[in-house]
Design a protein that fits this description.
With 208 residues, this protein is an alpha/beta fold. It has helices at residues 9-17, 27-34, 60-71, 111-124, 141-150, 167-172, 181-186, and strands spanning 2-8, 40-48, 77-81, 83-93, 96-109, 130-134, 154-159, 175-178, 193-194, 200-201. The strands form three sheets. The protein has a six-stranded parallel β-sheet with strand order 3-2-1-6-7-8, sandwiched between helices.
Length: 208
C-alpha cells in the first residue's frame, strides 16, 4: 500500500532519542521497520523548528543543522518548520514554593498543528492508503479520529517511549507499533552520510 509518514521531530527527540546514542536516526529506515513490508513509502513529512542556543548548550543549532542535512538526503522527505517562541515566565522554586523567580523559556509552536493539517489534507486528497504518525502528542487525537473513523483510512502510530499506549490513542488508530531501542539501533544513518556529488555529512562529535 502507498504510505505517508508524519513525524513530530521534537516529540520523537524527547520521547525516544534524548540521552541515547540513537540521535543520528534514519527516519526512512525507522518508518520501514514500523510499516508492513508490502507498504511503499511515498512521502515523509518531518515537522520541526529551528532551535536557538541555550545556556550550557551553544552547539545545539549546529547539531540540528547537521542532522537536517542528513535528513534531506532521504528520498521523498520534506521539512515543515514551525517556530520557537521565546518568553519569560514566573515560576515557584521546588521546595520553596513561596519564592518565585523569573526564568527564560521557549515554546515550540506549529509542529502539531502543521502535522494535523497535512495529515488531514493528504487523507482528503487520497494521497495514501496507510499513514504512520510518529508522535504521542494527545493534541493529535481528534485529527487521528477524523482520518480513521470519518475518512476510513488506515493510520498507525509509532509509539516512542516505554509507556503503555493510552486508551485514547488505541481508540483512534488502526495499529500501534513500538519504536524500541533495538529498532532505533538498527535504523541509524551511516557516518558520514554521503549526499549529492559525494558531499559528506558527518555525525556531530557529541553524538558519537
Amino acid at each position: 500500500m502507498r504510505a505517508c509518514v508524519y513525524i513530530d521531530g521534537f516529540n520523537l527527540y524527547y520521547r525516544a532519542l534524548k540521552g541515547t546514542r540513537f540521535k543520528w536516526l534514519d527516519v526512512h529506515a525507522l518508518a520501514a521497520e514500523l510499516l508492513d513490508p508490502s507498504d511503499t513509502i511515498e512521502a515523509i513529512r518531518y515537522f520541526t523548528a529551528d532551535v536557538s542556543p541555550r545556556a550550557g548548550d551553544a552547539g545545539a543549532p549546529q547539531r540540528q543543522q547537521a542532522y537536517m542535512r542528513a535528513l534531506r538526503t532521504l528520498p521523498n522527505l520534506s521539512v515543515h518548520k514551525g517556530r520557537f517562541l521565546p518568553k519569560e515566565k514566573t515560576r515557584p522554586l521546588v521546595g520553596q514554593e513561596h519564592i518565585f523567580v523569573r526564568v527564560h523559556d521557549t515554546e515550540e509552536k506549529g509542529s502539531d498543528v502543521n502535522l494535523a493539517t497535512h495529515l488531514l489534507y493528504d487523507a482528503f486528497r487520497e494521497r495514501f492508503d496507510v499513514a504512520l504518525v510518529l508522535s504521542q502528542d494527545t493534541d493529535l487525537i481528534e485529527p487521528l479520529r477524523v482520518v480513521t473513523q470519518d475518512l476510513k483510512k488506515v493510520v498507525g502510530v509509532g509509539w516512542l517511549d516505554a509507556s503503555r499506549p493510552g486508551k485514547k490513542h488505541r481508540a483512534v488508530t488502526s495499529f500501534i507499533r513500538h519504536a524500541n531501542p533495538s529498532i532505533l539501533g538498527r535504523c541509524q544513518f551511516p557516518d558520514p552520510v554521503i549526499g549529492k556529488g559525494g558531499v559528506r555529512f558527518p555525525k556531530p562529535l557529541e553524538w558519537a
